[in-house]
Every structure is written in C-alpha cells, then in structure tokens.
Amino acid sequence: MIPAPATASAATESDASGSAAAEPAATASVAVDSAATDSAATGSAPVVLLPYPAEQVPGLPDGLELHTFDGDACDGRPGPPPAELLARVEMLVTPYLRTGTVLPFLGSMPRLRVVQTQTAGVDDIAPHLPAGVTLCNARGVHDASTAELAVALALASLRDLPGFVRGQDAEQWRSGFYPALADKRVLIVGYGSVGAAIEARLLPFEVEVTRVARTARTAPQGPVHSLAELPELLPHADVVILAVPLTDQTRHLVDARFLAAMRDGALLVNVARGAVVRTDDLLAELTVGRLRAALDVTDPEPLPAGHPLWHAPGVLISPHVGGSSSAFLPRAQRLIGAQLTRFANGEPLENVMN
C-alpha cells in the first residue's frame, strides 16, 4: 500500500523507537498546570507512579509524592496499586514493555493528568487513555539502540553472519565472496529521530542514503522525500530500512505492490512495527528468493512456533530487541527525571502525542 500524497499537516515526522517501538506521527510540547498548584487545594503533594525506585531516577524535583509500580508490585508489595493510591495519582510512568499491566486500572485514576511511556510507540496505550489525559512518548530514548541494531541487521544479512554461525555449528569452513554494505544505496523509510540516528551510523560505511518521511521537507543532511514518492525511489535501493510509526497510513505499507517495486536481491530491514509489513506478501517474495529480509519485528508477534517466516530463505529474525539494550535505561531515567521536573513546575512537557 504505497500511499497517495499526504495532505498538509503541522505535525512533525517521527519514526520507530527501538524497534522496541515505532514513534507516532507527531510530537509536541505542551504546558500542564503546575502539579504543586493543582494539588494545593487538597493540602497534599502531587502523586506520581514510577516504574523505578526514586533513587534510580536522576534529577527528580522536590514536592512530589513518589510511588513505584514495576508491573509486578507496588512499593514492593505484589499486585497492582491499591485503590486508595490510584485515586490520588496525577502522573503515571508506564513500565517498559509492560503496558498491559497498567491498562486494567487506567480508568481508576480520576486525578490522572499525564501518562509518560518509555517507548516511542504508543499504539498499545493511546486507545485506552481516559479523555483529557496528556500522553507523552519516549522520543529520543531509543535512537541509539534501535539505530545500532538496524545497521547490525543490515551488515549481518549482507555478510551472511547467520550462515557463518551455522557453519561453525557444523564445523564447516564457509569461505566465499559476500556483499558489502559499502557503496550500497540505502533508503530510510521513516525519517524522525530514529531514522536520522540510523543515517548517522550508516554514513561511515560509505553508503548513499535517501530519506523518506510522511511529507517532504529539508533536513540538515539533505532532502527528505514524501511517502508518495516511494514508487520512484524503491527500484533504486539496495537496502530499505523501515523506521516508520504504526499508523493507519503505514499499516501494511509494505505490501505486494511495495515489494514488487524493490529491485531484485534487495534487502528489507524492519525496526519499526511488524504490522507495517504484510507478512504473506513478504513471504511470497522470500520464498522465490527475489528479496531478503532482516526483521526485528514481525506480524504476528511473538512469531509462533511453526510459522513459515522462521524458515523462509534469506530471512534474519531478531526478537524485537531494538530498544532493549544497555543504552536504554540511563536515557529513559534521564527523560523521566526531566519530565517530572517540568510537571512539578508547570512547564511545557516534551514529546506530547495528543
């Protein structure tokens, strides 16, 4: 489904965050009334529910009542937060990759004003958000980790590192001539913060990068093409890297028509969301050996045992670990500390999605 030209929008382009997640289509800054002022009438400090103990989060402001819910226990006690606490929570920071643990009590927090995720993608929580609650994502937190994996997947697939591992297991010396990343034409589909981070890591490999976003614009590194230009761009790309958010526009963006436009032997790398690709259409191309794929995300996910994608020729699969690296935690905790400071002081929050 290569889309028609998009209508004008004031939103800025975002992209996948860690293959852990794809960034939604817009971010912004918006002010939230001072937490301290809002709670003054009750004579109590604003209550915030964190996924980490307060001592692990740098830069926390004074004047907040902090509690911990990590998805398993609240303040060290197994189970969800008690009703008395939920009734007072004004800001919630969701546990990483465990959004499902907070969904049952999202509607039980009448004073809730802000939800801060630790993922770039918010498609798992946005439909469940109570009216009037501000939603912030973790744009920027996963850039380094996701970009690193995108390049690693491209290199591993091109140089056939999985084949070397299989050869080592079988005690086989698999010498030969393999494609290099150098001199390849790379098309980055989704040029937000993750897409830009991918480009920064690709350039030392002496590649030619073409950038695609929802709408055309000019970036510091050069022109950014629109999604509507994909039919003209795909036939020239040796490597196509997906870093788009999962939206109505990008769901099944990579379908039979998209794949047919890719040149023979091209490599598709997906660090966005599995549903950006129509799996059956990709399987058809992999089975005949015309394309290759390196996927950190799949649809369905987790990929069930026995699914044909596991053993399709020319495919490399990692288990949605784009954002799950040692680079994540310090960046996530710095963002949380900074956002709580803004919240406490009534300053504009960053990465507002609604």
From TrEMBL:
Q: Which residues cross the membrane?
A: none
Q: Which keywords, in A-to-Z order, does the entry hold? A: NAD, Oxidoreductase
Q: What InterPro entries does the record tag this protein with?
A: D-isomer_2_OHA_DH_cat_dom, D-isomer_DH_NAD-bd, NAD(P)-bd_dom_sf
Return the CDD domains for the record.
Answer: 2-Hacid_dh_7 (cd12166)
Q: Which domain of life is it from?
A: Bacteria
Region Disordered: start and end of each range? 1-20
One annotated GO molecular function is: NAD binding
The record places domain D-isomer specific 2-hydroxyacid dehydrogenase NAD-binding at: 151-322
- Give start and end of each D-isomer specific 2-hydroxyacid dehydrogenase catalytic domain: 104-354
Record PANTHER family: 2-HACID_DH_C DOMAIN-CONTAINING PROTEIN, D-ISOMER SPECIFIC 2-HYDROXYACID DEHYDROGENASE NAD-BINDING DOMAIN-CONTAINING PROTEIN
Question: Which family is this sequence assigned to?
Answer: Belongs to the D-isomer specific 2-hydroxyacid dehydrogenase family.
Q: What is this protein called?
A: 2-hydroxyacid dehydrogenase
